[in-house]
Amino acid sequence: MTQFFSYEHLTWPDVTALSRDTPLVLPLGGGYELAKVAEGLGNPPQIGLLPPLPFGWRGSGLAVAETLLGQMVANLLDGLRDDGFTRVLALTPQGVDLGLGAARMALPHHSQFLPAPRLPADHDRDKAVVIPIGHTEQHGYHLPLSVDTEIIGAIGEQTAVSAPHLATCLPVFPYGVSTHRASFAGTLNCGGRAFEDFWLAVVDVLAGRGFDKLYLISGHGGSCSFLVNVVKYAGERHRRIFCATTWLHSSGHIAMPVVQQTRLSPRGGMGHAGELETAMMLHLRPDLVQMAKVVDETDFVSTESYYMDWVEGGALVANPPWEDDTATGSYGAGSVATAVNGKLWLETAVLEKVAHVQEIHEQQQRREARRMGR
């Protein structure tokens, strides 16, 4: 009998250890009959299920052009092939093609038979739409591939819960951009152009439906510069909306001082899979953290204008190979992380996002008032 496993709960050494003929399946949505998936793949011993795409296709409640979605999915699958996997495919509802050819399995899906709720709901048009974007990428020996998705998904959801009259939150999107993808097995990559095209199309759809306050938030640093491009394009294309993003989370005027005052590691201890992300995961998903496997790596090649920490510092922007600075995939000191700090930092991250949402409302209201007064 075929055993299914959650790909995103693996570490990158776990992915390295997988047989390269293990089928890996990327679903559009959930709820497929897994027995039919196994049957279609010849009932192998095991199948890895990647994080499902929560929207983007016809029937999902928020659809973009299939060519745009298809290019992004193709990039994700190509990354797995580059890692040596020979059986990778997308699982789609019937009638959703994406131009993937043989790299696609189509099965009946509830979105074909039941009307999907619109994402976000039309009655939330007066709210800011918080759009959390995570990633599926390596986080050292001790953390799963899902770290960025787990953290930013929780922050987005709790922001909407904390300010229900101001914000609504989309389901967390589990893929971003990793230009360092080839350095460590298991990391996915949407591709920068395909990522930008997809999210600009999402903005187009939401603006066309009357949503005029959008906040794209990322749990993954590699996506941030591309989201900046998205909001720049959006501001040019949709002149009556306020579409914003920011650098990661816990990095602004509310959360960052708290992080700096309570952290146990020096600068360099929070770059990636270090103290901050480990602490937040100890709070959110301790079942997925393997503290016995932590390896601290803080020997980043640092200079005055270029170094690695949670908020990267200095005037220089660069992208050297990750393996220059880390053998395990970690930048930082995960060994000193605590669940207590993880809870505190997550709560201050939410407070910061709520403050941002309030500012987005103020920006849009004051700008509309000025436009109407001209």
Short description:
The chain has about 375 residues and is an alpha/beta fold. It is built from 9 helices and 9 strands. α3 runs antiparallel to α5, α4 (about 145-160) packs across α9 (about 340-374) and α7 (about 255-260) runs antiparallel to α9.
Describe it.
The protein has 374 residues and is of the alpha/beta class. Among the domains are: 1-119, no CATH class; 255-312 and 326-344, no CATH class. It has nine helices and nine strands. The longest helix is centred in the last third of the chain and has 35 residues, at 339-373. It is globular. The chain starts with a strand and ends with a helix. The mean pLDDT is 95.
Keywords, please?
9 strands, 4-stranded parallel β-sheet, single chain, 9 helices, 374 residues, globular
How do the strands and helices of this protein lay out in sequence?
Blueprint: E1 3-6, H1 12-17, E2 24-27, H2 34-40, E3 46-49, H3 66-82, E4 88-93, E5 104-107, E6 128-133, H4 147-162, E7 167-169, H5 192-208, E8 213-218, H6 221-237, E9 242-245, H7 255-262, H8 275-284, H9 339-373
Parallel strand pairs: 1-3, 2-3, 2-4, 4-5, 6-7, 6-8, 8-9
Helix pairs in contact: 3-5, 4-8, 4-9, 5-6, 7-9, 8-9
Number of helices: 9
Order of helices and strands: EHEHEHEEEHEHEHEHHH
Number of strands: 9
Helix content: 25-40%
Q: What's the mean pLDDT score?
A: 95
Cα-atom radius of gyration: 21 Å
Counting helices, strands and paired strands, the structural category is alpha/beta
Query: For the largest beta sheet, what order do the strands appear in spatially?
Result: 1-3-2-4-5
Tell me, what's the shape?
A: globular
The low-pLDDT segments are none
Q: What is the end-to-end distance? A: 69 Å
Tell me the β content.
Answer: 5-15%
